[in-house]
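Structure ticket #2291
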Amino acid sequence: MGSTGSIGRQTLEIVSEYPDLFKAWVLVANNSADLLIEQALKYQPHTVVIANEAHYEKVRLALAGTEIEVQTGEQAVADCVTAPEIDTVVTAMVGYSGLAPTIQAIGAGKKIALANKETLVVAGDLITRLLTTSESVLYPVDSEHGAFYQCLVGERHEDINKLILTASGGPFRTFSKDRLEQVTAADALKHPNWSMGAKITIDSATMMNKGFEMIEAKWLYNVSQHDIEIVVHPQSIVHSMVEFKDGSVKAQLGLPDMRLPIRYALGLPGRLASDCKKMTVADYCNLTFEKPDFDKFPLLTTAYEAANRGGNAACVVNAANEIAVAAFLKNKIKFIDIYKIIDQTLAWAPFVPAPTYDDYVSSNAEARAYASSLIK
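Resolution: structure written out below.
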């Protein structure tokens, strides 16, 4: 799901590494028709789905001489994960769009390699409840949540004292608050350590991404948001840590390469051997950690507020963030306006304490419309 994005492309690289273990059965993209066609011809899946119906004819005609089935539309995206031939669904779609397919995959009892953090940010309570009545298992693909998972293997939940979530600090870690008023989208897209898609790179620059990862960790590992500490680690070598009640701390280290957590999630319960570049500890003898600046990056406070409120609050924050980031990338608003739009939308939105799926759908739509009105 999201085969043409950064995570999707790297996942397909790993599929190529292990042809005896994996075959791409379905490839799903939203707008990148040309790359989807290229991937389909290379990997020969059973089905491709182009979500945007405007690109359907182009994809269909390009693949007309093959046996590949071509589908289109949001319903096709959600339905394709239920095919009996599918063992694992990699959810690498961006934003809210990953929610419905993930729910379908849970209903079908699939193993889910979750790279779409917004699924748990938006509807963590609903997803965790659905998992209790399904054979589906959720494995995190995020480097930070993959780190937590590895640190917790063999440990008892009651022995956890806190989760320590590391953040690179993004491209503006050393900027003054005043300087942030002048930064451009081009500045924000220059991440110091990671190569990611545009939306998540902007989220890293605002540190909203780390706020979302905190909410995701709350649901993945059944801990309170108050027991998740965020620390800035500019080198991005320690991907996260767990502190236990006896004072011991376990950390997972590795090079900043998303193929590592993807490979780990696909290989579970074991590990897949690889000839990828390995980390030499002596090359990283100066690892530093610092507290995040909540004043300079106020969306961290917004994320904790949304987690404290529960209900549909995080859904509203995510919706407003997607609208604001898209506007910033198109140079319609300033960087600091992203903060204002999200906070104003959260303050405006009607609070739903125990949302159903339909409540999430309506909250998302209403928050997007309100945030869009602020931009206009």
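Closing remark: Strands lie at 26-29, 47-50, 69-72, 88-91, 111-114, 137-140, 160-167, 228-232, 238-244, 249-253.
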